[in-house]
């Protein structure tokens, strides 16, 4: 397959019929979200995954090709990537798909429903539950006190690194890692979602993107911005930005810096964001290391898992 373009290679990834789920056993509910690629609705599914009688709440990603052929293509590749990827606790898992309806230009991808929605919105809506640096009496909290109040934030950071480590081990690039693309499920579980931009790496090393698409500029590594190079190491950069979002409780990165050129120029001059006030020092160090200009100098996801878990152990 050496001569095929990456998009062609995704095209020949197989669709396994075992994932097919009958459209008439889905009862569609409210809309959970909508983006430029399509929409996500809540649904009740009867007999999903062996449980013949059980009704399970699921989320369905859908597009209509009539409205956007590129969106349909993106969802088809997302489906194939999810099938290839397999299941992991810290990834939003595939439950099935309705592809028979493709004759009408309609595709449903059925995934796990995550009750607490996306991480970015959750952080913004629950800002008051997380630490303020001062207690009720107006005293500044110590590092240890801050750490204790931030256990959820630290746990999510750890779990996202785990999910990403799994992707990296399967040689899948996420390409759009950000708080908006992490979902929160029961029991404090965080799951990496939205593989719309994901690519399987068929070659060792980097994947060079061709053509211009809408890009998540503020989450992109410097080499992705300047040379359109994407790799697991560029996902690591995005993970650093995601950590910054977590510990600012959902702020937009690089406040005040707008526009592609301005950002690239600043990054090339060596400018990086500061450690958020709420973040423990070691998290600030992880962020800085994710943003090293040389991709090879950035830590791996498994190294970051290790770093975070050792800090978690030393505080409990
Ligand atoms: N919003 C987008 N995808 C979702 C999902 N799988 N569960 C809950 N809310 C969502």
From TrEMBL:
Quote the cellular component terms of the Gene Ontology held in the record. plasma membrane; receptor complex
Q: What is its main location?
A: membrane
Q: How does it sit in the membrane?
A: Single-pass membrane protein
Active site per database record: 176
Spell out the reaction equation it catalyses. Answer: L-tyrosyl-[protein] + ATP = O-phospho-L-tyrosyl-[protein] + ADP + H(+)
Domain Protein kinase, residue spans = 26-316
The residues that hold Mg(2+) are 181, 194
Which residues take part in binding ATP?
33-40, 61, 180
EC number(s) in its UniProt entry? 2.7.10.1
Q: Which GO terms describe its biological process?
A: cell surface receptor protein tyrosine kinase signaling pathway; positive regulation of MAPK cascade
Where is this chain's protein located in or outside the cell?
Answer: Membrane
Q: Which GO terms fall under molecular function for this chain's record?
A: ATP binding; metal ion binding; transmembrane receptor protein tyrosine kinase activity
The alphabetized UniProt keywords are: ATP-binding, Kinase, Magnesium, Metal-binding, Nucleotide-binding, Phosphoprotein, Transferase, Tyrosine-protein kinase
Any idea what this protein is called? receptor protein-tyrosine kinase
* Gene source species: Daphnia pulex (Water flea)
Write the span of the intact protein that is present.
2 to 317 of 427
């Amino acid at each position: 397959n050496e001569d095929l373009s990456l998009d062609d290679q995704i095209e020949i990834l197989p669709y396994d019929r075992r994932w097919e789920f009958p459209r008439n056993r889905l009862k569609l509910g409210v809309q959970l979200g909508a983006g430029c690629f399509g929409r996500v609705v809540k649904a009740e599914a009867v007999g999903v995954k062996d449980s013949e009688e059980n009704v399970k709440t699921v989320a369905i990603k859908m597009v209509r090709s009539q409205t956007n052929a590129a969106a349909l293509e993106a969802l088809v590749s997302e489906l194939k990537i999810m099938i290839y990827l397999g299941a992991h606790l810290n990834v939003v898992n595939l439950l099935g798909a309705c592809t028979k309806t493709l004759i009408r230009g309609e595709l449903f991808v059925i995934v796990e429903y995550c009750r607490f929605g996306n991480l970015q919105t959750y952080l913004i809506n629950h800002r008051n539950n997380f630490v303020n640096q001062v207690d009720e009496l107006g005293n500044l909290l110590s590092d240890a006190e801050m750490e204790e109040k931030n256990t959820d934030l630290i746990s999510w950071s750890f779990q996202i690194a785990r999910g990403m480590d799994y992707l990296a081990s399967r040689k899948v690039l996420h390409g759009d890692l950000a708080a908006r693309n992490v979902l929160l499920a029961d029991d404090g579980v965080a799951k990496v979602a939205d593989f719309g931009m994901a690519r399987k790496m068929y070659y060792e090393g980097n994947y060079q993107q061709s053509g211009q698409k809408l890009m998540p500029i503020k989450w992109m590594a410097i080499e992705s911005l300047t040379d359109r190079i994407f790799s697991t190491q560029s996902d690591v950069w995005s993970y650093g930005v995601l950590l910054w979002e977590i510990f600012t409780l959902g702020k937009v990165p690089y406040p005040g810096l707008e526009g592609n050129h301005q950002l690239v120029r600043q990054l090339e001059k060596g400018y990086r964001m500061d450690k958020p006030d709420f973040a423990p020092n070691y998290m600030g160090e992880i962020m800085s290391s994710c943003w090293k200009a040389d991709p090879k100098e950035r830590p791996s996801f498994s190294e970051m898992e290790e770093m975070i878990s050792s800090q978690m152990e030393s505080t409990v």
